[in-house]
Each structure stands twice: as C-alpha cells, then as structure tokens.
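User: I want to check something. If I give you two sequences, will you return the structure for each one separately, not as a complex?

Assistant: Yes, each is folded on its own. Here is the first sequence with its structure:
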Amino acid sequence: MANNIIVASTSVPIAEYIRKNVEQVTLMEPILLASDLEDLKEKIKRYQARLVFLESNFLDIATPYLVADLKGKNEKIRFAIFSFEKMVCQEVERFYNLGAVGYLNYRNGLESCLMGYRKLLEGKDYFPEEITEHFADYRLGELKHQELTVQDMELMRLLSRGKTADEISGLLHLTYETVKNYKSRIYKKCGIKNAVQLLLFALYMGLISPEELLKAAFGEGGSMMKKGVYGDSEE
C-alpha cells in the first residue's frame, strides 16, 4: 500500500499521541508507527511512505549518509521533525540542512503543531518563522548552487573532524587517491582554501558542532593543528 505516513518515536505512548494528532488532519490515510531506525527503514521500503514524522532524538547522531540511507530509492519521501523539548535555532537548522521539510515543537502549543501538520500534508514545508529568519539557507541556496553530493558532505564531515585522507579511505572504502581527488573537488566547489575555512564551512552547514570543531582543532589525537592539516587545499 502506497502513500502511507510514518510516525517514528522510541516511545510508544508518544508515537500514539502524534498519530492521533496527525489523524485529525488526514483523510483516513494509513499512519504507521516505527520504534527504531531499523524498523523505520524497513517500513519506508515496504510501504513506500510519502511522509515521515521523526522525533528529534532519532536524528541526534544523523549524517547526510544516514538520511540518504533511510530514503533508499524512495526519492519522493519527505521528513519532518517533532519535539517536546526546547531547541535552539542551530539544532533545527541542522535538521533542515539534513533535508527535513518541517519542524514542530509541542512547546509552541497543539494548535501550532496541527497547523504545521496541515501544511506538511499538503506538500508544503513548515518551520516556525522565529526560526527560519535565522536560517543560513544552504540547502536551497548556496548548497544547491554548489551541487554538493551526499558523498561530498560525508567526506567534508570526516575532514572537519580531523580525519586524514588515509583514514577516510579506510572508512569509506575508497582509494587514497580517490579521497584526495574528492577533497580537491569539494574545495573547488565551495571556494575553500584551507582547513580553517573547511571547519567554518562545515560548522555553518551543520555537519559539525562547535564542540566537535574545537576537538578537531585542538583535541587529543584528532588535532588538525598537530597533524599539520592547516595547510593548502591539497593537503
């Protein structure tokens, strides 16, 4: 059966509560529940879901690779985030940069969330205005212009965390020369000249947190400074 909606939460009572809310604005469209990432991935594939409502903790450790993996071959699927916790703009922006089309926070009230569900079910995006006015619109603006691929973003994420080309080649099962070529391509696409600019760019895109940036630059073992990474764009 196609066109299903999925609500994903590690808490069954929360998932049931969200399902009841969504049912208020749907026309009896099937709504499935998923309790973990593997369950979610399987249901996305089996039921060809068109819209997934993810509790924010599902994406706490998400990368562009993970989101792409969840989508699989279903290019039409859309993801929206819901939360009951107070969230800062940077966290919501990270979800946005990962491809989310909406964000609903129950601290803003039930009516606000129901309005968001209506817009999302109509095929529109929905983010509270107080958040979107602070967005750095990479996903629809500069990122689209640069045409960064999922692999580009994953490589950038690893580089910004202090991984060397040799380490990345093992993690991504690519040759050392391929990693170097991809890195050079990313630098050219983004206008990056050195690793300092790479860190700032990755931070701005939500691929690395401020804490991870500091660890990559100055932390034990992974220090980009100690490894001499703060050089030109080819090293």
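And separately, the second sequence with its own structure:
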Amino acid sequence: MAVDLACAQADAGHEVIFASTRGSYDDLLRAHGVTVVDIPEATDAGGAARGGWALLRLARRRRPQVIHAHMMSSAVQAYPVAKLTGAALVTTVHNSFDAHSSLMRLGDVVVAVSEAERQALLLRGFRPDRTVAVLNGAARSPRESLPLDDIGPLASPCVLSLSGLHPRKAVNDIITAFSEVVPEFPEWHLNVVGWGPDLEPLQSQVRQLELQESVHFTGSTLTPKPLLEAADIFASASLADPCPLTTTEARAAGCAIVATAVGGVPEVLDHGRAGQLVPPSDPSAMAQVFRELMGDAKALEAWRAAALEGSEHMTVSRVAADYERVYRSVL
C-alpha cells in the first residue's frame, strides 16, 4: 500500500522520498520519480538508533512537510525527527489487532484503513479528533506494470485464494469449504496463491482430504491482477482483516467474491452488495455460497457484475486523493 501511494503521489507532481530497507519495489518506485533511500532495519535497539539517525539526517537535508509512517518502528523513529524538523507526522495503522499498534498514536493524525478499524482504535483510546479513516484500495495499482510472475495458467473453472499463508488468514477454512462441494462439482479447482508458515499444514490437509487433483498451491506473486482476472470466484476466510488489498483487487478484476465479515471487509464489499459475506470460522457457510455460484451460471455472472459496479472507489488514485486531504489538514 505504501508503494502504491508513493507512486501515485509522485505521478501527481509531489516530491516523494521512500525511506525504508531495500525492497522488491525499489525499481518501480524510481520509475515513477520517487527518491528511494535505504534506511537501516530496526531489528534491535542498535538498528533502531541507526535508522532514526539516518532518518534525521535525511529530513534535515530534504525538509519534508509530511513524514508518513506505515510501521510501528518507523513511527517511533519518525516522532522525534518530526519534532526536530517541524514536519507533520502522519501514521497509518495497518494492523490494529497488534498490541504494539498503540504506538501509532504518536502521529499528529492517525489513519485507519477502514471505518471499522477507526472505531476499533477509538475503543482503545485513540483521540477521535486525530483519528480518521481512509479505506484501502489497490485497483489500477502502479504494480500492474511489473513483469508477470511465471506462475502459469490457473486450473479452471476455479476458486482463488490470495493471501499470506498464516493462521489469521484461515486458508484451511477455504479448503474445508471447497471439500464440501467438490463432489458435486468435480470440474472445479481451488488455486491457493501465497506463501507462509502454514504451507505444509495446508498441503497436509489437502492430502488428508484427497484433493490433490483439485487444489493447487501456486506460490506467491507480485502481479496478482492476471490471476484474479482468470478466476471465477475469489474467497477470503480471514479471522481478522483491517482492510485487505486483495479483496479490493478482486472487485476490480470482476471476481464473484465470498469473504468473512471481519474488519473492513464489509466496507470493501459495500456491506454485501458487491460480494457475499459469511461468518468467520464457518466453512459450511462459505461452502453454501460456493454451491450457489458453481451451480448457477447466471448467479455467478450477476455477482461478478456486482463486484465491478462501483469498483472505481477501490483505485489507488482515490486513496492518494484521500491522503492528500489528510496531509493538508495537518499543514
């Protein structure tokens, strides 16, 4: 999200400096006119101190009007730098369920990535007059210009899961739901896109369910758009999700969407009008939606059209415009 925002801001004519450890998107940032500066990673107290000192030297040279911190460690580093240089500090809370996210209140204004997350922050004591919501969006991302990953064509017709493979994403629930309907629809496939510590347990689950011919693990991707456009159904079973970028991308790609009603997901899906919402930890509820979509071509197409309708609100350009209003409010 930080990469998308920086590219869009530079495209709009702003001077943008992206200060972080080296990453996969550095060349993309530079292609959009963003200055990329390497900052030591804050893996320990020494690294945090070196990173803070490097950030201070950078800010003294470039005199930014706004410092925007997306990580808790960077918020801690940026706070004294902003005070010493007179910059406004904006922080974005991407994971409010993390206990350390309370550190993000160091910002002059704190941005939640959905209204649901803003309400969660207010319940934790964040100030209402300094906490705003900017709904995430990743459609028409600058990342779409990257060379395509060599994942290959998806087995189809298909359900697509796109996320990190760790417990909070509950991909195991998607596999369980798919296992309930595949006897009725043996031609369908489930493509699991992503990487993470749950990979081996999920592969074991697939073997135990004897779904090796129907469930495919593709690995991770930096270019999800073609995969989403090739999918029929996008599924997300997250147990907690402030506002997943993948669901905004799935809307723009025209997938029929089924997702758990957690965090900012209902807002992304227009509270059930752009995609079907199910309770978390309820694979049978998700299976029932799969059954309806797989068994009724007209229903599938209707939900694909519903996802596309209004999806322009999920664009990176809209997110950048919203953040510009946030910046101006503190300048």
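Because they were folded independently, the notes below concern the second chain alone. The chain has a mean pLDDT of 95. The domain at 2-137+315-330 is CATH 3.40.50.2000 (Rossmann fold).
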